[in-house]
Fold this protein.
Amino acid sequence: ASLATTFLNHTYENPFMNASGVHCKDTKELNELDNSKSSTFITKSSTSLKREGNPEPRYFSVPLGSINSMGLPNEGFNYYLKYVIDRQQRMPKGNPAFFSVAGMSVDENLKMLKAVQDSDFNGVTELNLSCPNVPGKPQVAYDFDLLGEILQKVFEFFTKPLGVKLPPYFDFAHFDTAASILNRFPLVYVNCINSIGNGLYIDIEKESVVIKPKNGFGGLGGEYIKPTALANVRAFYTRLNPSIKIIGTGGIRTGGDAFEHLLCGATMLQVGTELYKEGVSVFDRIERELKEIMEKKGYTSIEQFRGKLRTL
Ligand SMILES: O=C(O)c1[nH]c(=O)[nH]c(=O)c1Cl
């Protein structure tokens, strides 16, 4: 069975990559990803200037997933742009890389995207519309007027491939409204989902929360969020123009989880919490498991079942 995946006219050897924010903060982590069985990588969402982020502990692995309130710690926009452009020069035949931006304001996002547009970067850009862990800042993706405004302004000048990272939605009216806005723009993908915002994990022995920021409230990842992730992948796959692909993120821990995201219609698949727990060897394991499932079912390619989720 082949895991070959064509995305934006490029064929990747498999659909897997990291989720932004995990194992992608600095050159060491990015190089390790690039040398792993991950088909490509995405950088940590950047802001114009370097940010320290929230006080620690701000990420915590728990049996069924993770909770985080990082607060957008990153090396700053120029650091990541330099990394991806140096890589293009080092490996001109390398798989296109993904570059994530998460400004603290519409203007900051526009400024960074203008810089990407004017740069030699030839990969894919992801606009993170859902950083749920910056206190006091509402998620753009939950403000539908702002969502339309920012995309309108972006596409007045941005002509390179652009996707958006979305938080989970939980209401059909929201799926419908968000999709009707997104369908107005030449996006190349939507990435569903970001962490489920503002969960709370308790250590019963200590009778305490486990992360310092926001009195312990943080974005949930891992097994907790797979049903919500699958629903969002399916909801947008069935609502968006076929030209807008879906990246599936959330709860991918095994080959079976990956298969489920593909059944819902995802093209690329991102691994976050499980990558944090296992390291880059997670890609070897998940690829092997997905191949085994495909062979057991008699599939030789992903196209044979992508999006073909049955209903009763
Ligand atoms: O706190 C973070 O840095 C963070 N954490 C998340 O779970 N998702 C995001 O998009 C971001 Cl930007």
Summary: The pocket of HRO is lined by residues 21, 45, 68-72, 102, 128, 130-133, 194-195, 219 (CB under 6 Å). Residues 281-297 form the longest helix (17 residues). Residues 27 and 83 are 7 Å apart (CA to CA). The mean pLDDT is 96.
